[in-house]
């Protein structure tokens, strides 16, 4: 006799938590990048490199590199959370999507400042 069994699906809450983690991971870099952008724009152009410019470059790289990677993960996890039947997962999935959409201006500002700072 053969029996057909199905593999239980993970509840939506787990996918919602993963979506929130994925969307929140690059946000500190983006916030620091945007704060540093104000500092960079307010300073007169200089020649040469300094420790501050290296630090700014590393933070810019971290924020601008991690954001697209984790944005894709966030979208994947959030869609999985929204499609599952649990209410908690749906709420967390929609919050992750909202945070992702709200952080897009941060990334555009970061790109613009990185390009302007590199042109100096």
Describe it for me?
The structure is a single chain. With 120 residues, the chain is mainly α. 78% of the residues lie in helices and 0% in strands. The chain is built from five helices and no strands. The chain has helices spanning 12-24, 27-42, 51-83, 87-102, 104-119. The longest helix has 33 residues, at 51-83. The chain is elongated. The model has no long low-confidence stretch (mean pLDDT 76).
Q: Give the SSE string.
A: HHHHH
Overall shape: it is elongated
Number of helical elements: 5
Radius of gyration: 20 Å
Residues in helices, as a percent range = over 70%
Tell me the distance between the termini: 75 Å
In terms of per-residue confidence, which ranges show pLDDT below 50 for 5 or more consecutive residues?
none
Largest sheet: none
User: Mean pLDDT across all residues, rounded?
Assistant: 76
What amount of the residues lies in strands? under 5%
Assign the structural class, choosing from mainly alpha, mainly beta, alpha/beta, alpha+beta, or little secondary structure: mainly alpha
The beta-strand count equals 0
């Amino acid at each position: 006799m053969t029996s057909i069994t199905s593999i239980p699906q993970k509840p939506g809450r787990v996918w919602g938590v993963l979506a929130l983690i994925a969307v929140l991971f690059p946000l500190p870099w983006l916030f620091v990048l945007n704060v540093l952008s104000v500092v960079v724009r307010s300073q007169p152009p200089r020649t040469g490199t300094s420790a501050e410019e290296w630090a700014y470059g590393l933070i810019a790289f971290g924020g601008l590199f991690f954001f697209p990677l984790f944005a894709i993960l966030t979208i994947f996890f959030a869609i999985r959370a929204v499609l599952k039947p649990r209410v908690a997962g749906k709420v967390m999935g929609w919050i992750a999507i909202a945070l992702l959409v709200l952080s897009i201006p941060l990334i555009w500002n970061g790109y613009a400042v990185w390009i302007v700072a590199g042109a100096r």
